[in-house]
Amino acid sequence: MSVTTDATAIRPFHLEIPDEQLDDLRRRIAATRWPTKELVGDRSQGVQLATMKELARYWTTEYDWRKCEARLNALPQFITEIDGVDIHFIHVKSPHEDALPLIMTHGWPGSVVELLETVGPLTDPTAHGGTHEEAFHLVLPSLPGYGFSGEPRELGWDSGRVAQAWAELMSRLGYRRYVAQGGDVGAAVTDVMARQAPKGLLGVHINLLTAVIGITDQLPAESEQERAAHDAVNTFTTDGFAYFLEMATRPQTIGYALLDSPVAMAAWMLDHDTDSYYKIAGAFVDGKPTGNLTREHIVDNVTLYWLTGTGASAARNYWEDGRARARLAVEPPPPASVPVGFTTFPDEIWASPRSWAEAAYPGLAYFNEADKGGHFAAWEEPELFSTELRAAFRGLR
Amino acid sequence: MTGTAATAVELRPFHVDIPQEALEDLRRRIAATQWPEKETVPDNSQGVPLATMQKLARYWGTDYDWRRCEAKLNALPQFITGIDGLDIHFINVRSQHEDALPLVVNHGWPGSIIEQLKIIDRLTDPTAHGGSAEDAFDVVIPSMPGYGFSGKPTGTGWGPERMGRAWAELMKRLGYTRYVAQGGDWGAFVVDQMGLQAPEGLLAIHTNMPATVPADVDKATLAGEPPPSGLSAEERRAYEQLIRTYGQVEYAHMMAARPQTLYGIADSPVGLAAWLLDHNDADAQPAAAVVSALERTESATGELTRDEVLDNITLYWLTNTGVSASRLYWEYKGGFFNAKGVKIPVAVTVFPSEQYQAPRTWAERAYPNLIYFNEVDRGGHFAAWEQPELFSAELRAAFRSLRT
């Protein structure tokens, strides 16, 4: 980068990982020192040895990062500095002039890789069973500390600050009327955007109900679906919470292993919710991918974390949000003041019933229950996911 | 290292002899460490700071000498014997004094037998260390299953209960018909279980991490609720300390829920070292006593040094036991500091920097047959390692009444 360049300018970005880095990665995977096999026949002790060994074998022998690189480089990518941090983003304009601008945020352990298969259906709907009135101009930023965005060197980069940065990004791109979407961490960011309601934000769509954590005792538990959702949240906050707690409290400690061992990084990323774990393990061990969660796409995402060395910085995102949650417990956030749409995917960590979405977002503008898909809905079922976004935002055009 | 094919019940002498390639591979890996960026805070609130890890790695990868630790271990009588289908490694030092009291000492996590090396001489040879012949112990220091040179379980079930039974069998096999048991950290869980099992010959236990918390306080601290009414000032302090501790156990949650996911502590020396270092004591996380030891190159009084901290970490590395040791957290489904109902004689020493300072009132209720209770003025979670002199003096005093 030239020192004379204005950092806040929008600079084109092209990805080109040096060969030595890929060679080093392969060498490290080949030199992995493995633990003994887990003592159980399921995932109850963590990511199973057979899954990791097959992933490592695939990673070093069949996998080709250059294909992922080419897919990313085929899209217009940019970097611009916002609030002191370089923000990387993909920006695909629809051929349809009246397209609705949409900023869509990935989560953890995700990246822009999660969202790539939605680019076609969202920006070019007529080629994917939709009409030109359903087109979006799509902005896919990498969260600070993730992927090719910069790593914050100062405190305070919680979801609220990211939300402000996204509003600035959309304004810098010249979008005066736009919508926002997110799942996982992206859901937390999008939720705050709806509460901050920056000028120009018309509405949001969310596919993980993060807003209910901490207020579950106020949520209905009458119907079978509501009780199942309570059970699922309880399971998450007891048995399924360990990775979350570790990153929210000691991101630096776990970071040493994640930066130094590719297999450690991969296992840490696979140890998410039960549904996605078995879907991903199935892709490796049984050769049966679910939807778009293929071996190649899974390893694309892991390799992106590895090559950018973002295991610790992404984990720190949880630490920041942990601090933010503690503040919000004292001073609850304002309600969402733009229309909110929500889609429940059946295999999500907790499949939120309409009553819960309405409790989190009074006056809920859109609600639907999709018939398949899980936590990584955009990744797993990009066509179905895109259909949901078209429907959710139809009323705002 | 001896092969583990047989898990035979006879006592087989054991000698540590790590192949040179393993040591070279360790140095190579340390030198090739790919580091994360620096934490974004000026303190340890995001985990073990980068500067601490880099300084430690520099020494570990160059001047640190594992062979010195190996020589220390090999100067002690070590054995392996198969118990309950698993090879158990242990140190057994018999005192020259005939009436020595047999004592089994159980280490914890992130520890190993390395924690206890400095108390061996003091306990077995008291006359050389300011004690009398009547203070002598025969000492047995086993490595827990999945730890150090003991075998790694290949099936579930090796929790503190099963270890307690294994130690009773070990003492019997060594011909000890009257003995005592001691433990801190996981060792405390094991000796509490031994106290509940009350095997023939076990006279008493000593614990430096006593489980004394009454049910109502236990419930409140685990849930982060206000304390029950009517607590004394001392009890109230213990409540506050427990609340603090439960805010520093994310490592325990991780290992209890998903030990297998920690592939990095098998594959990365620095990943393992950071994981093992990030255990708290009452003063800080990572433990203040351990962090200060990283600056101590030697100690005439037996205080913890940098080499000892690295001996322990290197033992985990060379035996590749990071993950197998973690599984102990997964195995155990019981309570932490709640009173367990031990009825046999119990001795307690309260060290000021332990997770919580057990009030005498709670200790008396939790252990109705409390034969010894003392609060000392220094030492913490790794008491035997940090203050071997004081720790040894406590064991002499604790068990004195049983010798007559």
Structural class given helices, strands, pairing of chain A?
A: alpha/beta
The helix/strand order of chain A is: EHHHEEEHEHEHEHHHHHHHEHEHH
Series of H and E elements of chain B: EHHHEEEHEHEHEHHHHHHHHEHEHH
Shape of chain A: globular
Percent of residues of chain B in helical segments? 40-55%
Q: In CATH, what is the homologous superfamily of chain B?
A: Alpha/Beta hydrolase fold, catalytic domain
- Helix percentage range of chain A: 40-55%
Total DSSP E strands of chain A: 9
Structural class of chain B: alpha/beta
CATH topology of chain B: Rossmann fold
Biggest β-sheet of chain A: count, sense, barrel? 9 strands, mixed
Distance between the termini of chain B: 41 Å
Protein described:
- The complex is a heterodimer of chains A (397) and B (404).
- Chain A is of the alpha/beta class and 397 residues long.
- Chain A has a single domain (11-396), classed as Rossmann fold, CATH 3.40.50.1820.
- Chain A has 16 helices and nine strands.
- Chain A has helices spanning 19-30, 49-61, 65-73, 119-123, 159-172, 185-196, 224-238, 242-249, 251-260, 262-270, 274-285, 295-308, 311-330, 354-360, 377-380, 382-393, and strands at residues 11-12, 77-82, 85-92, 100-105, 136-141, 178-182, 201-206, 340-344, 366-369.
- In chain A, helix 4 (119-123) links the parallel strand 4 (100-105) and strand 5.
- Chain A is globular, with a radius of gyration of 20 Å.
- In chain A, 53% of the residues are buried.
- The model of chain A has no long low-confidence stretch (mean pLDDT 96).
- With 404 residues, chain B is of the alpha/beta class.
- Chain B has one domain (47-402): Rossmann fold, CATH 3.40.50.1820.
- Chain B is built from 17 helices and nine strands.
- Chain B has a nine-stranded mixed β-sheet with strand order 1-2-3-5-4-6-7-8-9, with helices on both faces.
- In chain B, strand 2 and strand 3 (86-93) form a beta hairpin.
- In chain B, helix 9 crosses helix 14 (322-331).
- Chain B is globular and about 55 Å long.
- Chain B starts with 11 loop residues before the first strand and ends in a 5-residue tail after the last helix.
- The relative contact order of chain B is 0.15.
- Residues 1-5 of chain B have low confidence and may be disordered.
- At the A-B interface, helix 8, helix 9, helix 10 and helix 13 of A face helix 9, helix 10, helix 11 and helix 14 of B.
